[in-house]
Write a structure and sequence with these properties.
Length: 732
């Protein structure tokens, strides 16, 4: 990266040298309560917290100027943010000032989905919920309530619901996002990738990105490390049907045919094995079933892969050799949103196997071994033992699922099998946009006796709720302690910076008050969350006052690589890296990944691909006026040749129609050479149809609305969603 582009990158990530000075002058103004001292203080106040605009939880410093919220910067003491925030993080003030925010509890007055409400008090709302929950418990059992949650803010509500007896608890982040990756790596190494991912990008000599859009998918630490890798001239290889921002930084760009990634991965491994370019000592010492693996991949030559992927034979060979030359500091990135085609656990396992061949697991420049601060849990009473099994995976249909499957809970809600699900609690996740096939989600909702949504904005799923509870935004509340596993141990705090502007409440307060209404007050022996935080921190030998003042307390920097003294351990059945998986074979699956050709689009249709924007998080931020200023609507990327064929002009509004006849909102065309002719691409999260989201309503098109088809991964239950096709409707 040249000096000009480097400066631009630092600018968009919100870096400020002023943040360095802030670290020595942090002055929290919260004194034992969620309420803030209303007396306005002249001058600048700096209050540490951690961000909630995405799941990365970057350490941040909020600034008040003469008592008013002014700006947010990265905390330079935080190992995740390193003093910088991404554009979303610096735009966090917009979450506080969003005029479309939920302001008071709402109870539905008309049919579900009509968005007709009456404002009520918190007592009225919680009494209503508790009454319905008691009725469900007496008629069906507590297991007939399910909880969908995203993010650390759901911890206390999860605690209340577990105390009530709920055991069906899930998050879309598994079956609709990262689950295949976690399962693929666990099947290979016996361990997962974690969050933040254990990728050592900053030390990689060769970085391979397969559909991983670093720079657009703005995971802060990784984006910074990626920029540094480019600056020091690390070799970057990008595989993507679209010439992404990451592709623009690559030495080798492979414009692959969508759905053929496994074919390319098999061909790469074929070259590395046949030319004996793999890490022989590493594989011999730590590998299991290598000879069977080598035999399985022998037919998958670059010549064969060319016919499937469209990638030139010599480019396949060259990139395989480049990876091998840089081993073990070659990192084939595992990605995050990897639910694509229904064979995603095997594709992720192929990525894991390629990393294993190059010896990158546990090695510098590959995958490090993370650690976390040891903070004892609060000594709560034991939860009641559920009387029924979970509903998401009956008869262990998906034998390698390691977390609960959201769409499995949805299916049980529709069918009533293995037993009825009659209540949904939904925290900070918009299931209408997160789950494939909106019609199935709505069908499930109609079978419920109670649906409660806790959120900060009136999302589409809130429009279908019986009760909507307005949560304080992250700048107005405490949350649980942040102690993610990373290269070093640390603990961070989220604390209130300003008061909530209306009748919003923090999640911990909602959970505690609901527990009281349900007769479960003994599960919350503390009166205020500061007591809870203080207990846990004292048990770890730390101070709440210090943490509130500094925002981050850093601990040890333990060894993180094999070469530093980490003992190589692989908690697989064989105790080694499983090149050939007996457990997959015994369950009736391929022990080594095989390629299955994807379905072709109908005539005149194009595969729909979708991804992220660096200025938005999922469908949560489109009403944030600061972030809207940077991106108010999405576009559909269309190859120039296709645009000419269909008479589409750059900037023209069209609609998209999918293979099932679903037609989108109008969306602007982006005519470009940066995408293949067999697919189109759009940023996820737009096209809101919640009437209460006045700022975002009708702007752009919803990819989620067009995702009516999905293929379920038979290994772990993830929903492959890149199996939908669209054509163009020019009459708008």
């Amino acid at each position: 990266m040249n000096s000009i582009s480097r400066r631009k990158f630092l600018k968009i990530t919100g870096f400020s040298v002023g943040a360095v000075a802030a670290a020595s002058a942090l002055s929290p103004i919260v004194k034992g309560s969620e309420k803030i001292n209303k007396e306005k203080v002249k001058g600048i106040q700096k209050i540490p917290t951690y961000c909630d605009i995405c799941f990365w939880k970057c350490g941040a410093i909020a600034y008040l100027k003469d008592g008013a919220l002014w700006k947010i910067e990265g905390n330079p003491n935080d190992p995740l943010s390193k003093g910088r925030l991404c554009p979303r993080g610096t735009g966090g003030i917009g979450a506080y000032s969003d005029p479309d925010r939920l302001r008071s509890p709402l109870i539905r007055t008309k049919e579900r989905g009509e968005e007709k409400w009456k404002e009520v008090t918190w007592d009225e709302a919680l009494d209503y919920i508790a009454s319905k929950m008691k009725k469900i418990k007496s008629e069906y059992g507590p297991e007939s309530v399910a909880f969908f949650s995203h993010g650390i803010g759901g911890n206390f509500l999860k605690h209340t619901l577990k105390a009530y007896g709920v055991n069906n608890i899930s998050a879309p982040s598994y079956a609709q996002c990262r689950g295949p990756r976690d399962v693929g790596f666990e099947l290979t190494f016996g361990d997962g990738i974690g969050s933040p991912e254990r990728t050592d990008i900053e030390n990689a000599k060769c970085l391979v990105l397969i559909g991983s859009h670093l720079g657009e998918n703005m995971h802060n630490s990784q984006a910074q490390e990626f920029a540094n890798a480019v600056e020091r001239d690390s070799t970057v290889i990008v595989v993507d049907p679209r010439f992404s921002v990451a592709a623009s930084k690559a030495k080798y760009y492979l414009p692959i045919k969508p759905g053929t990634d496994i074919a390319l991965l098999l061909a790469w491994m074929n070259v590395i094995v046949n030319e004996k370019l793999y890490d022989v000592e590493y594989v011999n010492k730590f590998g299991f079933g290598f000879e069977q693996f080598a035999a399985e991949i022998s037919p998958y030559t670059p010549e064969w892969a060319y016919t499937e992927t469209g990638i030139d034979v010599e480019l396949i060979r060259t990139t395989a050799r480049v990876m091998a030359i840089n081993k073990p500091a070659t990192l084939i990135h595992p990605g995050r949103h990897v639910t694509w085609y229904g064979d995603d656990a095997q594709r992720s396992r192929a990525i894991a196997l390629l990393n294993a061949l190059l010896g990158s697991w546990g090695r510098k420049g590959g995958f490090f071994f993370p650690s976390s601060y040891s903070i004892p849990p609060y000594p709560y009473p034991e939860y009641p033992k559920p009387g029924k099994d979970k509903v998401d995976n009956p008869d262990n249909k998906y034998p390698f699922a390691i977390e609960e499957i959201t769409t499995g809970i949805r299916e049980a809600t529709i069918t009533g099998k293995p037993y009825p699900i009659k209540g949904w609690f939904i925290y900070a996740t918009n299931l209408i946009h997160a789950l494939p096939n909106e019609e199935e989600t709505i069908k499930a909702i109609q079978n419920l006796d109670l649906m409660v949504v806790v959120d900060v904005i009136p999302s589409e799923i809130a429009g279908w709720a019986d009760v909507v509870l307005p949560e304080s935004v992250y700048l107005e509340r405490y949350d649980d302690l942040h102690a993610s596993s990373f290269k070093e141990t640390f603990v961070g705090i989220r604390q209130p910076v300003v008061e909530s502007p209306a009748d919003q409440k923090p999640n911990w307060w909602i959970a505690k008050k609901l527990a009281d209404k349900l007769g479960l007050g003994n599960y919350f022996p503390w009166q205020h969350i500061e007591e809870y935080l203080d207990y846990r921190l004292n048990a770890a030998g730390l101070s709440l006052d210090q943490l509130k003042k500094e925002g981050i307390i850093r601990g040890e920097k333990p060894p993180i690589y094999f070469e530093d003294g980490i003992t190589p351990e692989f908690p697989t059945p064989s105790g080694k890296i499983e090149f050939y998986s007996l457990q997959l074979a015994q369950a009736g699956f391929d022990p080594v990944p095989k390629f299955t050709r994807p379905d072709e689009p109908p005539a005149g249709y194009f595969r729909l691909l979708f991804g992220r924007s660096p200025v938005h998080s999922f469908s949560r931020t489109q009403s944030n006026r600061i972030l809207m200023d940077m991106m108010e609507e999405n576009e559909v990327w269309v190859n120039n040749d296709i645009a000419n064929r269909y008479g589409l002009a750059n900037g023209q509004y069209i609609k998209l129609k999918n293979q099932d006849g679903i037609i989108s909102n109008k969306v602007k065309v982006k005519v470009t050479e940066r995408i293949r002719t067999d697919c189109v691409y759009m940023v996820h999260g737009f096209g809101h149809n919640s009437k209460m989201l006045k700022g975002a309503y009708g702007k752009g098109a919803s990819d989620a609305q067009l995702i009516t088809k999905y293929k379920i991964d038979p290994i772990m239950g993830g929903t492959g969603m890149n199996v939908n096709f669209v054509t163009f409707e020019t009459e708008v």
